[in-house]
Design brief:
Layout lengths: L2 H13 L5 H10 L4 H16 L7 E6 L16 H10 L4 E3 L5 E3 L2 E6 L5 E6 L13 H9 L11 H4 L2 E6 L4 E6 L6 H4 L24 E7 L3 E6 L13 E6 L3 H9 L5 E2 L7 H5 L4 E13 L12 H10 L2 H8 L4 E2 L8 H6 L19 E2 L2 E2 L7 E11 L3
Parallel strand pairs: 1-10, 1-11
Antiparallel strand pairs: 2-3, 4-5, 5-7, 6-7, 8-9, 9-10, 11-16, 12-16, 13-16, 14-15
Helix pairs in contact: 1-2, 1-3, 2-3
Length: about 400
């Protein structure tokens, strides 16, 4: 990591209230910044903090999916609504930073052996569960072992199979041994299924975790309500007193709820609704690149799409630019017939061998990475999914 990257990281940690003012200035000094330069960065970051919403109130989120199968059991989480609730009420050993790297959460640090087969996680001191119990290594071992064994009833089982042993080295250190090197183990342990619950805990409809909110009520298919965890281990977070989350499956109803002020935040906004939202007072429209891609799946084992030429013809018939412009309203990017991230797509443009190097018009592409397009079974389109929120203070 370069010096500039280190400084930007420290600044982001301060602005996210993960560093105190004193620690922020101390780290900048250790990084070799002069008092003047450090003061300039501090002033800029303080402006960001000054714009932070006022604490308090209830945040109401209208999500795009819900069902009677909604659950708080970490082993059985299947929908994005379940995922959100897991992180509201619980924490994992690590968190995903803005650049998708692994950052400290319940584990304040970790290190791997030279062969990357043994990992040692040092737990954050002073963390308590919502029932008042202090976090220890036993809680971590119990929570992770729920995904292991012959019949763990866990969606995460395959990811945990390489683990051969989990043991403690005192109350604040957990040692995990693998059957093969894995440099990405911390990323696995940041997954929402790997959140930590108290040792022996089984009443998941009344989940007890260490998260920013304590569960007040939960009814599958209806909604959940959480109250601020005053003892949360990240200082000054969360900002709101309560968070209420429920599903509104119908897109127009979800947009209308936002416009009427019944909810403060919605996701999966239909592109056709964007102009309406942009024209409404007190509502902010935003979009973010995602890995979601729109496809035209074709069954390659049955007629007529078992014919590679049929698949190729259907792919070439599609006017991708028109779909992006008229259906997605510009919120997206032309895909590369592969589920790559937006950054990956931009670095590997579609190419036409007959034209030599350089990108070509998508409907006329003949190959991807040297493979004949007739070998592909579908078309991928990258989507930037818009979401919207109403000002909440």
């Amino acid at each position: 990591m370069s010096d500039n990257d280190k400084i930007r990281y420290l600044q982001s940690q301060y602005e996210r209230r993960r560093l105190s003012r004193r620690d922020f200035m101390g780290f900048l000094g250790a990084a070799g910044l002069s008092a003047t330069a450090a003061g300039t960065l501090l002033t800029a970051s303080d402006r960001v903090l000054a714009a932070t919403p006022v604490r308090g109130g209830r945040l109401r989120i209208g999500w795009y999916t819900h069902s009677a199968n909604d659950t708080l059991n970490p082993n059985r989480l299947t929908t994005s609504l379940d995922f959100h609730r897991a992180y509201q009420f619980c924490n994992a050993l690590v968190t995903y930073e803005e650049d998708l790297s692994a950052g400290p959460d319940l584990a304040e640090s970790w290190e791997a052996s030279a062969d990357a087969k043994t990992w040692t996680f040092k737990l954050r001191k002073g963390v308590t569960f919502h029932n008042g119990k202090s976090l220890t290594a036993d809680d971590v071992i119990y929570s992770l072992n729920r995904h292991r064994g012959e019949k763990p009833d866990s969606i995460m089982q395959a990811w945990m199979e390489p683990i051969t042993d989990i043991k403690k080295d005192g109350d604040q250190v957990v040692v995990i041994t693998l059957d093969a090197p894995n440099a990405d183990l911390p990323m696995v342990l940041g997954d929402m299924h790997a959140v930590i619950v108290p040792d022996g805990f089984t009443d998941f409809d009344n989940i007890v975790g260490t998260g920013p909110f304590k569960l007040k009520s939960f009814k599958p298919g209806v909604g959940s309500l959480g109250a601020r965890n005053e003892g949360y281990h990240f200082e000054s977070r969360p900002h709101v007193d309560e968070v209420e989350m429920f599903g509104i499956g119908d897109t127009p109803a979800r947009v209308n709820a936002l416009m009427a002020g019944d909810v403060h935040f919605i996701s999966r906004v239909d592109p056709k609704s964007i102009n309406i939202i942009n024209g409404a007072p007190g509502v902010t429209m935003a979009n973010a690149p995602s890995s979601r891609h729109l496809t035209f799946p074709m069954m390659a084992d049955r007629a007529p799409t078992d014919n590679a030429e049929v698949r190729k013809g259907l792919r070439l018939l599609l006017d991708r630019e028109a779909v992006l412009k008229n259906i997605q309203k510009g919120y997206g990017a032309i895909g590369n017939d592969t589920p790559r991230s937006p950054s990956g797509c931009s670095s590997t443009p579609l190419r036409d061998p007959a034209a030599g190097a350089g990108p070509c018009a998508p409907p006329r592409c003949r190959s991807v990475h040297g493979r004949p397009s007739s070998e592909r079974s579908g078309d991928a389109r990258r989507a930037h999914w818009p979401w919207s929120r109403r000002g909440h203070r």
